[in-house]
Amino acid sequence: MHTKAGMKMEIRQFTYVDMVAQCGSFTKAAQKLFISQPALSNYISKVEEEMGVKLFDRSASRLVVTYAGEQYLKRAKSILGQLADMEREMRDITHHMKGNIKLGFPNERIIYMLPLILAPFKEQYPGITVEVVTGAGNRLVGDLRAGDIDFVFLPSWNTYRDIVQEEIAQEELLLVARKGYLAEELFLDRERNIIDWRKASRLPAIVLKKGHAIRSSTDVLYRNAGVAPDIVFESHSNMLSCRLAAQGMGVAVVPEITLELLRGGIEAEVCHLSEHPVTWSVNVLYRENAYVGEAERTLFRLAREAISAHNKKL
Q1: Long-range contacts of range 61-64, CB-CB < 8 Å, 24 or more positions apart?
Q2: pLDDT at 112 over 80
Q3: The pTM is what?
């Protein structure tokens, strides 16, 4: 494949440009690529010269991708994604189980999920490297669309355009408050700790910052109750929300895994939001038309089995 200037495109070229864009610095990108900074800088300059465009604006302290660079990266990531799909398909055909999988998890979910699935997966596929990325749900979905992650484990009630969602598990959302904080008239069934959400939704609320999956879901819960939440604190983690609620700052809606992660670490009142458990779907997300191979299917199965067995203990 040649440009008008006669330059031969290389996979290395796409990888190098992408890494510089991610790092915003030749020095940082060179460290990650295990090459010298001058060699990387010269290589990118040569690419720009032969293509006749500037991929990066070097006038600021942090490198900025130009419009031409953005378009280049869109094409480059599409090509790299197709190559990754091809590698996975060839792996299935040859049964030569080598390569890598890049997974995305919300910040706390990785603490819960990865220890359940990584060891049994590596036992079956020792030649496959697993890389992980963490962050807020909306950022992970953006990284998935951009081709920076292969698969994302994310709970939500949302659907995403151009992204396949396979259910891994159902998980209950629960209300947490300090012991004695909730008045008796707030309960539908005190014996079974079932709260009247329409009433409880009017209490001071501790919620996660926008961009997190649980924030999107709690926003829906408040809308369904016809209430604008009285937000007293926007947290960056479910565990922090839970601990603040246990101290009496307000109430927090958290997924059941948060209580598992904090088991024994707090004393709090934990309530169901309805007579029928309010749950969300924990899904694995991947791009439409992506090739999902034997190793990936095994990873999904291990996740389903591990979470199902673990949930029975909660």
Answers
A1: 62/24, 62/25, 63/20, 63/21, 63/24, 63/25, 63/26, 64/24
A2: yes
A3: 0.72
